[in-house]
UniProtKB/TrEMBL annotation:
Gene3D superfamilies: Nucleic acid-binding proteins
Protein biosynthesis among keywords: yes
Keyword Phosphoprotein: no
GO cellular component: nucleus
SMART domains hit by this protein: eIF1a
Keyword set, alphabetical order: Initiation factor, Protein biosynthesis, RNA-binding
Protein name per its UniProtKB record: Probable RNA-binding protein EIF1AD
Source organism per UniProt: Manduca sexta
S1-like domain segment(s): 17-90
GO MF annotations, alphabetized: RNA binding; translation initiation factor activity
């Protein structure tokens, strides 16, 4: 299988949401930071922090950033790395999990869907914000000028 064909299949698998609820041994976790070498530090709903690994099929094809939610499955031989990524959650799967009461309450921040959409807008921090102040002195001068003439 060529690289392009493999990438296409992996992307389709990752983006296609099968709406399958997590199994008994799988948990939903939040990515805290990337540690490099396909390892990510996560926090569970109970507050436990540990490392998870990215499976080979996702490497160089899918990227996970801080704040993303993922579905992990524990690996028995892990001392430092305790789990492996099974699925990267998107907005649709998060919404589906919330509807089926599978989503952990600790990760529910109470935002509405419209607020979540606005948070995804990129804000350019490289430029200074220019604030324009309009003076109301013209309107106040007109009123004071007409009073002095009378």
């Amino acid at each position: 299988m060529s690289k392009v064909t493999k990438r296409k299949h992996v992307m389709n698998e990752a983006l296609w949401d099968d709406y399958e609820l997590p199994k008994a041994n799988q948990t939903i976790v939040k990515v805290v930071k990337s540690k490099g070498n396909n390892l990510h530090e996560i926090t569970s709903a109970t507050g436990e922090e540990y490392l998870v690994s990215m499976p080979t099929k996702f490497r160089k094809n899918i990227w996970v950033k801080r704040g993303d939610y993922i579905l992990v499955e524990p690996i028995p031989e892990g001392d430092k790395v305790k789990a492996e990524i099974v699925k990267i959650m998107n907005k649709d799967s998060i919404k589906y999990y919330k509807e089926n009461n599978v989503w952990p309450k600790q990760f529910d921040d109470g935002k509405q869907e419209t607020e979540m959409d606005n948070d995804d807008i990129f804000v350019n921090t490289n430029r200074k914000n220019v604030v324009m102040y309009t003076s109301d002195s013209d309107s106040s001068d007109d009123s004071s000028g007409s009073d002095s003439e009378q």
